[in-house]
Write a structure and sequence with these properties.
mainly beta, Jelly Rolls, six-stranded mixed sheet, globular
Length: 173
């Protein structure tokens, strides 16, 4: 016999997603303005008061359909993602010893249809998976520039013994 499972609430009464995030992770929803000429979207505006760290470095990344990047973790700096196009599944794992959400696995979806900024604090493992049918194009505004001589980057393969999350599909590193 097959068990019938009732869905849990996933949105508020206003239709906003209910997302449980590790301590210190925050999102800022952004608006894409559309008119007869095209579109405009602000990637970052200090007036939002969203993040205390200034912009010091920025780069663009892509992720091909079906590919997983991660797991990655930084000990010194935070990542701050913004997705320009495509559909990204971002999985977070909190392994910080002093965090109130240690052990939490959280999944967020970011896309051109729901643009927002997200910060990923130091100590949070994160993996990116393209769940769409075209390249994801994203921007990262990390809180520190990349140090080529001593990279602040630690890696694990997509499916491993440390993080209690299994990717069912996708190729990764």
């Amino acid at each position: 016999m097959v068990a019938i499972i009732k869905d849990a609430q996933s949105t508020t009464a206003e239709g906003q997603p209910i997302e449980k995030l590790p301590w210190g992770v925050s999102c800022h929803e952004v608006t894409t303005h559309v008119d007869d000429r095209g579109t405009l979207v602000e990637l970052f505006n200090p007036s939002w008061g969203w993040h205390h760290a200034p912009l010091v470095y920025c780069y663009c990344f892509t992720l091909r359909p079906g590919v997983i990047k991660g797991w990655a973790m930084h000990k010194k700096h935070e990542d701050r993602y913004f997705i320009l196009s495509g559909e990204l599944e971002l999985v977070l794992y909190d392994d910080r010893e002093t965090s109130s959400t240690r052990g939490m696995v959280s999944t967020l979806y970011m896309s051109e249809f729901r643009r927002r900024l997200i910060n990923i604090p130091a100590g949070i493992w994160h993996a990116n998976r393209n769940v769409g049918n075209k390249d994801v194009v994203g921007i990262n505004f990390p809180t520190e520039p990349y140090d080529r001589a001593d990279p602040d980057k630690y890696r694990l393969p997509p499916n491993n013994e440390v993080i209690p999350h299994t990717f069912q599909s996708g190729q990764g590193w």
